[in-house]
Specification:
The protein has three helices and six strands. The chain is of the alpha+beta class. The strands form two sheets. The chain has a three-stranded antiparallel β-sheet. A three-stranded mixed β-sheet has the order 2-6-3, with no helix packed on it. Helix 2 runs antiparallel to helix 3. The protein starts with about 35 loop residues before the first helix and ends with a strand.
Length: about 190
């Protein structure tokens, strides 16, 4: 038997322990389980995918915000387009009445009545309603504006006369009716 000579460490030097190399390292995990590097690479890939998804969502949100701002600006700018389109026949009728050189009082009145009918039809289509309280109707400060309080043979706080009709768009008052209201008689 021959012995191979192994170098010995000088006296007093710490004994060397064999270094663990990848070939001689004991297997840390069973075969088929991913290594730490593989797990790190997968985690980094997931993080990158999440970051990309977040950036896409952020860009989509910004695009939606810009589109909404554009739509609002366009609605403000062209919101009256439908209304103006309905008013054009009324304008045409009024201009035609003024352009007529040989209009009698009767034909002029007839043309104005027809124009008023066109305007009322347009109001109906756009849900504009008159606020025209009848005499004796209870005063409503949300729909009426009292211009005068007069002594009358009517219950106090009731409408006596309408000076100017009001108008509402759906449930919103555009202009209150200007009215005279009965006041309590002084005793």
């Amino acid at each position: 038997m021959s012995e191979t000579a192994q170098p010995r460490a000088p006296a007093g030097a710490p004994a060397e322990t064999p270094s663990a190399s990848p070939e001689t390292a004991p297997a840390a995990a069973a075969p088929g389980t991913p290594t730490t590097e593989q797990l790190l690479a997968e985690a980094e890939a997931r993080v990158q995918a999440q970051r990309d998804a977040w950036l896409r969502a952020l860009a989509d949100t910004e695009n939606v915000r810009k589109r909404a701002e554009s739509d609002v600006a366009s609605a403000h700018r062209f919101g009256a387009e439908r209304l103006v389109g309905m008013l054009l026949p009324v304008m045409d009728s009024l201009e035609a009445a003024l352009a007529s050189q040989v209009a009698s009082a009767e034909s002029l009145r007839s043309g104005v009545e027809l124009t008023l009918k066109q305007l009322k039809g347009m109001f109906e289509k756009t849900s504009v309603t008159e606020i025209n309280p009848s005499g004796g109707e209870k005063f409503d400060p949300h729909r009426h504006q009292a211009m005068a309080a007069v002594e009358a043979d009517a219950d106090p706080n009731t409408v006596v006369a309408v000076m100017q009709k009001g108008y509402a768009l759906h449930d919103r008052v555009l202009r209150p009716a200007l009215v005279s209201v009965a006041k309590a008689r002084g005793g």
